[in-house]
Amino acid sequence: MNFSRLNLTAILFFTLFIFTTKAQQPVAQRQNGPADGHIGGKVIDAGNAEPVAFATVALIKKSDNQIAKALQTDIQGAFKLENIAYGRYLLRITFVGYTTIIKDSISVNPNHKIISFGVLKMYAGKSAMLSEVSVRSKKSSIQLGIDRKVFSVDQSLVSEGGSATDLLANVPSVQVDVDGNVNLRGSSNVRILIDGKPSLIAGGSVSDILQSIPASSIETIELITNPSSKYDPEGQSGIINIVLKKNKSLGFTGTASASIGTLNAFNSNVSLAYQHKKVNIYGNYSHRQNNRSANGYSYRTRDALQPDTIPQKYNQNSLNTGSNTGNQIKAGIDYNLAQKTTVSFSSNINFRDNNRIQNSTTNGINSKSALIRNQITSNDADNHGNNHDFNIDLSQKFKKPKEELTANFSLAKGNENDIDNLNTSQYTYYPKNDLTVNRQYNVNDGNNRNWNLQTDYTDPIGKDGKLELGYRTTLNRADNNFIASVFNATTNQFVYDPTISTRFIYDEKIHAVYSNYQQQFGKFGLQVGARFEKTIINTNLVNFDTSHVQNYFRVYPSVFLSEKLTDDQTLQLSYSRRINRPRDRQIIPFLDRSDPLSYRIGNADLRPEDVHSFELSYAKYWKSTTLTSSVYYRRTNDIIQFVRGAYDNTGITITRFANFSYGTAAGFEFIARTDITNKWNITSNLNLYQNTLKGNSALGVSDNDGFAWNANLTTNITLPYSLSLQVRGDYQAPQAIAQGKSKANSGVDAALRYDFYKHRASLSLNGRDLFDTRKFGYVTDDGTYQSNVNRRFQSRMFLMTLSYRFGRGGDEGGKGKNKDKKDKQQDNNNPPDEGGMGPQ
Predict the structure, then answer these.
(1) Which residues are registered as beta bridge partners of 45?
(2) What domains can you pick out in the chain, each with its CATH number?
(3) Model-level pTM?
């Protein structure tokens, strides 16, 4: 399937979908009888008076509890439900992390056609039980906005007791590969932030740190596939922001949970918080540990016939076992210096220990199918890492509504200490029997430091506009010292080997300013901006006295155009320029020999990827279904790919990283949530895309392209006796990579939860990869060897989790005992309509 055919099909379907849904509206109106009622209002955050954009507004018929109308608030938090049939209704407004607003006993009739609720305040906190209606309202598991998706963690039963990696694997549009690397829309070049900053992951491997963060310490996950100029342009396919839990309720609150499961898994989490008047104090501690059991194989065949003494085929089977232990601490305090001035101090600490034992057996077979070589390798690896950061945040509001100045200063430091003990025994049968034993002891000591200084200013312009200005400086330094020692049988001791040892220093300075203008013209919205960045990168291979400097200035523009076609349909077109800078293993130029058949080396000369991203999004809301669909196109210049080739004539291959001319990705994505009944809902995600890679003749790699797709589906069912069931399945089709393609993989997860003690406590049982099918692999042809590789990251696992929520936390919605009477009256009473009379 070629790109033009995919693109044409997507556009035709997209156009047909819009016209079909629009054509259906008059029919529905005729079926409902008179339909000239109007209900409107504006939703704001009770804490800072900011608009709550993309909150879900549902109008429910009292006669049968079915949804009559549904839409999302616009970027100013406003909503307007039109063409409402006469009758009695209930209005429900929900958004992730906020108390649900419910307005009951709304009557639309010939004498009361127009109803305005004015400004409605949403309070951050737990879901509420309102005395006037018998409704228990949960947070929506996913909020679909035009430019982002917000995923609520506490609705993911299959991730309970797991890590941040497990949670991300359950988010639409996100995939996690065999090594725990995160992919967004099929691309691994995604920017991952913690609480909106990169500071927590300043040091060490991102995948290792995500593995050590328990899912229970995370509040929400935000996906921003085409960020504006306000955001850091790093990341080819967008941004994933992991928001850690923080107190949002008045009074004393707390949660505690503990999990136990197979593979020696034990996880625990405690969160405590207290908020009163001017002070908000919060803290969270999480512990996570489990064993890992993985396996895989690698079959390699050489094209040309070789002498009988050289293997033509290599068959390798491996078994990996290990243990992971992680601890995460987050604490902070917010203090209101004045009515409009708040200063915050927060800190994150993450420390972890990982042990991995990898055993492999490799058989070398010659052209006559005779076994001529047998190699047994054992790699015992220990990793000890820690990261900690400290943040100071200041928020200053002004007399002018919505005018605000914020500032942040943060310092993050990290340390990674890796020890590898490699033992290789090789027995050669032909032309003569010979035994060779090699032992190598590696120590890799990495230190990382990140400074962040930024300030942002928001100035409202008129009724529906605003101007955003900002400045940011980041200073990153990574110092990796790799010391390799080889065992000398004569002296019976390890001897330092300078030829494979290296010290690599990465020093990065980025200075940025941005401007973003936003304006709403009726149903049409405009947002334009630009980010100006100066980047200076110095790399130094100390022991070889080799240094490289990259010094460049770039402008990153962004444009967003949106049109509210009807109350329940929104269209948006966006463009942004982004960058993806090479890091970690891609650039560190020391030889990794942990796999005896496949070495790896970085490339300090890699250039950053230059990304141009276009996206056309369409959102449609039915009575019980919300759909967001997107057509996207991404061109990446200087795209970074790994290339495999022969290391020597012994059958060892080596993986290097190189810049290719460009690559493109064009796709069509659907995300839909459907409420089949009030106790059963389904969230589905389908992503179809075409990847094209321009080859590199100097490396002997030709052009490659291919069509791929991935999908996932999550269903939630509320059962009798306070039971909840969640089942999730995912599938990733094969996709093109340099010199070959990856294999398909799939899996199914399920969870069952029982709520008791007035819904303060819950007991859940979840199983991951129920059918033991999540295997990752690829097939490649590098011109010397054809490879068929298969690996498993983690075997099937079951966990049981007990959770308990305690503390008063104020009254409903976390508004506290001293809630303002005016606010209470606004939340619980019916507002006047535009004619001066409330609903009857």
Answers:
(1) 122
(2) 32-138+815-828 (2.60.40.10), 251-352+382-414+446-800 (2.40.170.20)
(3) 0.74
